[in-house]
Design a protein that fits this description.
Strand content: under 5%
Number of strands: 0
Mean pLDDT: 84
Number of domains: 2
Shape: globular
Helix content: over 70%
Order of helices and strands: HHHHHHH
Distance between the termini: 56 Å
Low-confidence stretches: none
Length: 190
């Protein structure tokens, strides 16, 4: 079990390294950090992501018990805050903003000013929502991965979805880079 955990963390950190290389290329950066610092940062990203996912999973198990207690003691508060989905949507969107910000801010070789990151972050989030909705519609209407992949259909669907989301993340970095070049060069060559 220990070997499996170590290997899973190592291979997940390879995914973070791939995103780092893509972000550096999108921003036109050379990463001057040593390889052990890069790998350590990737491991921190993996462990932090796994901890966040564990925290969310615990919330999904214990939160319904807590919400039922709130519903019996204060039905009006429960309706406005929890039943409307406001807390759920705000938490999910806040977590998405944090993850995209962390990738754009800490992974590339050079840190960018916060004002230069927000356009690409917002662009990424909007495209993620649009593409996730479109992919969901595609899966409901057209896709039949079970016929092709049988028991691996769920894994293949997740891989395709993650590929789309990571391509959009890199596209957001390219968007920031293009905006930065447009600000420094008022007459760009076509």
């Amino acid at each position: 079990m220990t070997t499996g955990i170590v290997l899973a963390i190592f291979f997940a950190s390879n995914g973070v390294e791939a995103v780092r290389v893509a972000l550096n290329r999108a921003y036109g950066d050379e990463d001057g950090r040593s390889i052990w610092k890069q790998r350590l940062q990737s491991l921190v990203f993996v462990v932090t992501g796994a901890t966040l996912m564990l925290f969310i999973s615990i919330l999904l198990v214990f939160a319904p018990i807590y919400f039922s207690f709130i519903e019996t003691s204060s039905p009006t508060f429960y309706f406005w805050v929890f039943q409307s989905g406001a807390v759920r949507w705000c938490t999910a969107f806040g977590l998405l903003i944090f993850v995209v910000f962390a990738c754009h801010y800490w992974l590339p070789g050079h840190r960018r000013p916060l004002a230069g990151l927000w356009p690409g972050i917002l662009f990424t989030l909007v495209l993620w929502i649009v593409v996730a909705s479109g992919f969901s519609l595609y899966l409901e209407s057209f896709a039949n991965y079970s016929a092709t992949y049988a028991g691996l259909a769920g894994i293949m669907t997740a891989l395709i979805f993650l590929y789309l989301m990571s391509a959009i993340l890199i596209f957001g970095a390219e968007f920031n880079s293009a905006l930065g070049r447009a600000k420094t060069d008022p007459n760009p060559a076509l």
